[in-house]
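Model it.
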Amino acid sequence: INLLKMTPTELLEESLRLSLRESCAKLKRKGIKLLAVDFDLTICAVHTGGVGRIPKDSLRPVMVALLEEAEAANLTTCVATFHSNADAVQHIISQYVKLHEPIVVRGAYTEQLEGSPIGGKSRQIYSAWKHLFGHDDVVKWDRVLLIDDDEKNVKSIRNLGTLGIHFQAMGSTEDFVNAFQSIATTQKTKSNGKLRTW
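Modeled.
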């Protein structure tokens, strides 16, 4: 990358991407095993209503960067959504996000596996964990970070020890990156159960 040839906008984007990259690596070193990200109104700036095709500019650039940098840092990531068509979400992401491996998506019709908690995105996260790490692997809720636009979804798994960022659409990109960086910097291996919001 030639920084001297970058515009101010490009320099800002590269700076934010670098921060995300470093934060993903820190989270992994501190024991976070799964990054779970919501789709509608989080990765995607609009509520798709179950539609399987959306314009590229509907995806938030900061979330595209986060998914790419998480993979680069070997931080396992999934999408936990109430979207009715998980395959469509996976297809949208594969179109617009540069990933080497397809991302695991768990949607509205994800099976309620035996042992899975009920409420919020816990069913989707539980299913993704079992798929990614093996059916016999015990879900460690304090090793999960959820990013979701709906505070109810974040609060519903707080008692499980899961960290969360309440992604509010009115916040700025810089605010989100700072919140993500803060969790990566302060999070211990064992969660204290506090809700992180911005």
